[in-house]
Amino acid sequence: MCRTSHDHSPPPSPRTPRDCTAGIHTGYWFEAVCYRDSGDRSPELLYRTMLETPERAVRLVRMQIRTTHPFDLAPAEVDRALAWADGGGRVQALAALHRGERAGFSLVLYDGRRPEWRITPVCYLALTTAPAP
Questions:
Q1: I need a labelling partner for 84 at 20 to 30 A (CA). Which of 16, 30, 49, 127 fits?
Q2: How many whole angstroms separate alpha carbon 101 and alpha carbon 99?
Q3: How far apart are CA 130 and CA 58, in angstroms?
Q4: Cα–Cα nearest to 132, from 19, 23, 21, 22
């Protein structure tokens, strides 16, 4: 609404601000990257997300390991991947994350590419707004 110099009505009131809350939370920053070879310094980002618990982060690594095409892996790498996903590697990763340490896993494919999964515990600021009255 435009006001002219002859209009003496008060200006419209600004929107009422909503109540906001802020909190510091712990999350788990998940990244899946792929190096072209052992000398590659800038990997291709495949996937990243923030997860709420170490269990969800490790579950995502396990799922992605299991969906890596078996024909791209040497038999020893298949065994190593499944041992991590179903055994000690998974347990050690969960323990490290619960201690606030990073965890991860990597494979070497037949063609030399190296997929890598990384999980990093982080603190982040979460802002939320209260619903309008």
A1: 49
A2: 6
A3: 33
A4: 19
Phi, psi values for residue 39, rounded to 5°: -95, 0
Rounded to whole angstroms, the Cα distance separating 129 from 116 reads 37
- Residue whose structure tokens are 């390991």: 65
Tokens matching residue 33: 């990257």
Kindly report the average pLDDT of the chain as a whole number.
85
Identity of the residue numbered 112: G
Contacts of 96 (CB under 8 A, 6+ apart): 102, 103
Backbone angles phi, psi at 82, to 5 degrees: -70, -35
In a 13 Å sphere around the CA of 85, the CA atoms on its Cβ side amount to 19
Q: Report the first-to-last Cα separation within the chain, whole angstroms.
A: 25
Q: Find the mean pLDDT for residues 65-71.
A: 79
Q: Output the pTM of the full model.
A: 0.75
List, for residues 73-94, the tens digit of each pLDDT value.
888 999 999 999 998 899 999 9
* Among the listed residues 114, 121, 36, the one whose alpha carbon sits nearest the alpha carbon of residue 81: 114
Q: How confident is the model at residue 3 (pLDDT cuts 50, 70, 90)?
A: very low
